[in-house]
Design a protein that fits this description.
By secondary structure, the chain is mainly alpha-helical. Strands 1-3-2 form a three-stranded antiparallel beta sheet. α1 packs across α2, α1 crosses α3 and α1 crosses α4. It has two domains: about 70 residues, Arc Repressor Mutant, subunit A (Orthogonal Bundle); about 60 residues, Diphtheria Toxin Repressor, domain 2, CATH 1.10.60. Helix content is about 70%, strand content about 5%. A hairpin with a 4-residue loop joins β2 and β3. It contains seven helices and three strands; from the N terminus they run αβααββαααα.
Amino acid sequence: MLKELSSSLEDYLEAIYDLSLKDGFARASAVSRRLKVSKPSVSSAVKALAARGLLVQERYAYIRLTPAGLRAGADITGRHSLLKEFFISVLGMREADAERDACKAEHALSQEALCRFGGLFGYLKSPSRRAALAAAKKAASGGCRL
């Protein structure tokens, strides 16, 4: 399902998912503010996502995710969170930089790569690997030359 979505539509779906967690719906104006885009851009994205069966737009600008939209939104959010946490915890990046890079990487990596990445991260976070993480953070703080 997600392979059909552009990076931009994934960003809209992620924002709608996040905004709808509290009340079960999102409003177009809140999506516009969150993504710093115009309301017509939100309207266009909502129509594209609705055509794919991921959401419905109700009266009074309520946007509700379908079960497929909820699953896709949770998947996108999970990818983003995994990458951001890795960038902060393992690589010692600042939160703002980790946020920016996670947003880019979540769209570029395949599902297989993300699954393996998650496995590696779990391994690195295991108690026996804490010393390796501390050493990696110390090395990263000294500057990285590629």
